[in-house]
Amino acid sequence: MTERSTLQIHMELLSDTIFGSGMSVPGGEDIAVIQDDKGLPYLSGSTLKGLLRESVENWLCWSGEAQETGNALFGEPGWNGISNDRRIQLTPLTLDVVPEDPQECYSTRCFTSLENGMVKEGTLRQAVCIRAGQCFSGTLCCAASDLELIQKALGCIHWAGSMRSRGFGNIKFHSELLTAKEKVSTSVSGSCIHYRLHTELPLIITNAAKSQGNQYETQQYILGSAIRGLIISDLSQNCPEWFMENKEALLRNVYFLDAVPAKGKGAALPSIKGFYEDKEERCLKSVVTDGDFTPGFKRAKLGSFCAIDGDTVCYWSTKTGGVTRIQRKTEAGKDSQPFQVRYISADQDFEGYILLENPNLAERLCQAFSQNIWLGADRFAGFGKCSVQLLDDAAEPLWRQQYGYAPGDTADQVLYLLAVSPVTMLNNLGEPCGLNTEVLARELGIEKVELSYCSTSVGEYGGYNRTWQCREPMINMYDRGSLFRILCSEVPETNRLLALQKKGLGIRRNEGYGEILFLRKNLYEGIRRKEAAAAQENNTELSHTAELRQAKYRWIADHSRSILKGGLSKSQLGTIQSFCQKAILLRGDTAELKRYLGNTENRGPAIAGKYKTIRKLLEEVLEKPLPETLGIDCQDGVIRRLQLIVELIDHSRKGGMK
How far is CA 489 from the centre of its chain? Predict the structure, then answer.
């Protein structure tokens, strides 16, 4: 195994810098800075990778070394998913010192184009910049043999971000070597491995069925096939002899279940389909129990995952986010292609299980879990870093114990079968058919089963075969959470139910598909209420941020008309805007702005009348508390009031005046 080293990377901004997000804000900036959930700027891992790749390739060209090194370190088009020990793994660079107010990180600049020495019509642009002097840091892991090359290449990077030709983005890198961390020690030796992962970085588990065009969606959980790929890849590279000896057992008799977000409200299940509720969301009923639909009820909102607590379903969803990126290397003659990527947000916990028919494999499997692991798409571009929080033995998945039948329980002729993962069986011709009732009856040891009612959805599921280096065909399966009410010809033995749960149903069970659960009849039919699980700490803050932005845009739209009716020209409004921006740079000193607005002696009556409306509005905004102006609780201050005025004027100049 190739020895690897980890660098701590530090970046200092020597000038104002623009790390563009690819987005603009209506009525605000035309070029927006990429920000995290707390409104703080950062340099994305993919951007850092691109800068470093360009610098490495330049260094190799200058020194006359092999150009193939660049592809070995950063990858190349047509990558088949098989990694090598030289690929670098890096994190985004985030602020070292976080200010109390995120707005302290930014300043605003305005630009225009000139034509014959005059401002060209319609060219006014506004950009948000990250203030000079701030420092960012992150980590980079590479082969020890490439360490010197990486450090030299980092030292050659002096510019980053947008508008570098105008003096923005002057930066300075330096790095230091970090001490390597040991792997997680474990004594797991049973037939069920329980693990918990914490997402240190955003994680992309691509949902191919819902991705289209230049938009790539993510799953809301970590696929068992992703964990399977991680472990199989590690064992095949680092323990090749042992892997070849146990290859068949690893690929056929080890079952990698999906890892789902944990909330502390009991074992997590996919949100169960078939529930409806009244308009006040106080009464919850299931159409699967007897097929009866109550008039006036609507489909219940139960998030993506749930836990059952007595008569209550506690529900939640995975926190996700998105980012706009640019594919710069395209076919000859084509422009760079922007695309959008959805991801599972950082700082979330996921729990999963690995089931083994041979417990002797457990210890070696767990050796693939290091202190930190990298999963999913773009894991070499600043995504997918997870820390292993827990690795231990379990008797069986917790959701089987909490919601399913136990040995000694008496089953019923009516069974509720829940698809814990996507599932489909095959018919006699080997074709996917959903549930094959003949096979199901045989597995339960009874003469006949009948599907009386169900609530389902269907999705397409594929995969990637590394051996053949090709994608597997998409197969229609019942989605997670699909529920079936099964009527049995006689009461099946409980041990038959438990054996079928353990075995699973249908195809591709070793990749996490085909996981089922027979919900206890009294437990399921006793559900009457729902309750949202406690949100993460920053969810309330994010919701409030969205409400604040909406309130701000409503206020701008409402007051833009009054500015237009005042009769001021674009250049006159631009002058007022420049005084406001200067006041922001002076930390809220509005003396010069007020002198300009109050200068009525040097203006004729007609011109002075035009300034009257906007002067009155600006005085009102500057004197009144911002929460009162916007009608929502928010932070206040002169700078924030001035920023609101700037956005208002900018909106009026760009969209409101012809």
Answer: 46
Distance (Å, whole) CA 254 – CA 33: 46
Name beta bridge partners: 326: 338
**Angle ∠(113,115,118) on CA atoms, nearest 5:** 85
Q: Residue 318 phi/psi, 5° resolution?
A: -70, 140
Is the model's pLDDT at 302 over the cut of 50?
A: yes
- What pLDDT does 638 receive? 87
Are 13 and 134 contacting, i.e. CB atoms less than 8 angstroms apart?
yes
Q: How far apart are CA 646 and CA 307, in angstroms?
A: 48
Tell me the pLDDT tens digit for each residue of 49-68: 999 999 999 998 888 777 78
Confidence band for 200, pLDDT divided at 50, 70 and 90: very high
Q: Tell which residue, 395, 416, 394, has the closest CA to residue 405.
A: 416
CA distance 523 to 494: 16
Which strand (E) or helix (H) includes residue 109? strand 106-111
- Confidence band for 507, pLDDT divided at 50, 70 and 90: very high
The model scores a pTM over 0.85: no
Q: State how far the alpha carbon of 116 is from the alpha carbons of 119, 120, 122, in Å.
A: 8, 9, 15
C-alpha–C-alpha distance, residues 91 and 641, integer Å: 36
Q: Could you give the dihedral angle defined by the CA atoms of residues 494, 498, 500 and 502, in that order, rounded to the nearest 10 degrees? A: -170
Transcribe 474-538 into DSSP letters: EEEEEPTT-EEEEEESSPPPHHHHHHHHHH-SSS-GGGTTT-EEEE-HHHHHT--EEEEPPPPTT
Q: Can you give the pLDDT at residue 658?
A: 35
Going by their DSSP bridges, the two strands 529-532 and 312-316 should be labelled as: parallel
What number is the average pLDDT over the span 514-520? Answer: 95
Radius of gyration for the alpha carbons in the chain, expressed in angstroms and rounded:
30
Tokens of 612: 């009257």
Answer yes or no: is pLDDT of 537 > 50: no
E-strand stretches of 220-262? 254-256, 260-261
Q: Is residue 31 within 8 Å of residue 17, measured between CB atoms?
A: no
Our CA dihedral for 324, 480, 225, 260, rounded to 10 degrees, sits at 70
Per the document, the length of the chain is 658
DSSP secondary structure letters along 186-211: ----SSEEEEEEEESS-BB-B-TTT-
> Looking at the DSSP assignment, which residues form a beta bridge with residue 460?
476
Using CA atoms, how far apart are residues 290 and 416, in angstroms rounded to an integer?
A: 12
∠ at Cα 202 (196, 208), nearest 5°?
A: 95
Long-range contact set of residues 505-508: C-beta below 8 Å, sequence gap at least 24: 505/423, 505/425, 505/435, 505/440, 505/443, 506/423, 506/424, 506/425, 506/426, 506/477, 507/424, 507/425, 507/426, 507/432, 507/475, 508/463
**Alpha helix ranges (H) inside 19-67:** 45-63
Token pair belonging to 105: 């990180």
Mean pLDDT of the chain: 85
- Distance of alpha carbon 456 from alpha carbon 239, whole angstroms: 43
